[in-house]
């Protein structure tokens, strides 16, 4: 596992760079970030709904569960329309989705760091990234009314800090490449 990680250190660095770019863009254009997330989600749900309905119609004679695909499609279209007509509700739902993602990701980052602590030095970088993710998730859940702008600033700042930690971790992992043996 460690040799695979050290061979692919650049993926961690790339992940960090992408997070930093996203964070900077979120800080520079916060209103565009919220609107973009909502519109993209709405479009995805709507298009997925149309494709699901089309699939259900195409397989209704061959698949006894075609109705479940049809219902999923109808739900997708409804969610897509709700997103377009009530973007504020969707933004709040996305806030909770992002909070959930941050909490789950943070937990897994900490678990991975604990598992790797006997194999690598300075696992605290990975633990700190996990704790940062959990902190962001908790803050988003506890203070959802703080407003979209402050949430975007929080997410942008988190993304930059997390990106920096990922780049540090990438170079630490890269330095282990010659010594690793699986």
Automatic annotation (TrEMBL):
Keywords, alphabetical: Membrane, Transmembrane, Transmembrane helix
Statement: the UniProt record of this protein carries the keyword Transmembrane: yes
Pfam families according to UniProt: DUF308
Transmembrane intervals: 9-29, 35-58, 65-86, 92-112, 124-145, 151-171
GO cellular component, one term: plasma membrane
Protein name: HdeD family acid-resistance protein
Native source species: Dehalogenimonas alkenigignens
